[in-house]
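Justification of resources, computational component.

The compute hours requested in this renewal are based largely on the per-chain cost of generating structure records like the one below. Each record pairs the submitted sequence with a full structure-token output. That output is archived, and it is also reused by downstream analysis tasks.
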Amino acid sequence: MENIIELKGVSKIYKTGEKEYKALDNIDLNITKGEFVVVLGPSGAGKSTLLNIIGGMDKVTSGKIIVDGKDISNYSDKQLTDYRAENIGFIFQFYNILPTLTVLENVELVKDIVKNPIDAKTALQEVGLGNHINKFPTQLSGGEQQRVSIARAISKNPALLLCDEPTGALDSKTGVEVLKLLRKQCDMNNGSNTVVIVTHNSLFAEVADTVIRVKNGGIESVTKNENPKKIDEVKW
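The structure output for this chain reads:
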């Protein structure tokens, strides 16, 4: 299978005064196109930094990062902005939707920044919010607000969807529904979409195609799951 992400000797060092903190330490990693990938690790392990590097929200200190055949390691800020807009869908623990806009308007924001967006109403239908398009975020539950953020992300029609603790602020039942939506997104476009989820919840490993464990800024292990469970089979 073709790799969508390749990290070669990637390090990320943050400096505070004279002190240095190595968030990522000489990482080599490949992620295969079309997989549902879970990145596990404790707080401070480097998993969110890894996601930010892949998503072009932060730059590497050293090493190369190649996404879908393109080396983004030395991209300028403008190039990274275009890369994020055109290639990546982001979903975060806290929904980052605008309270002064309706559900539909929040999703429609992406149509001006991507070349081939999915219709906003269609994306909202996909996440079960077709009857809520004219509501404002304050009129929605937490799970519904997270669905808005998912609809906004998938309306970009991204080949790569990056999720940082996407169920962390939700109850377990709602979290399962969100996870199903993410799995569905991975299976779209004839299974060519890739979803990468950063989480501390080890149960996610049971439904992943690949599990990456991060510890102390390094890759502790990469495990291929030959028989991932269906989401409803896991005791959440």
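The chain has six helices and ten strands. Residues 3-233 form a domain with the Rossmann fold fold (CATH 3.40.50.300).
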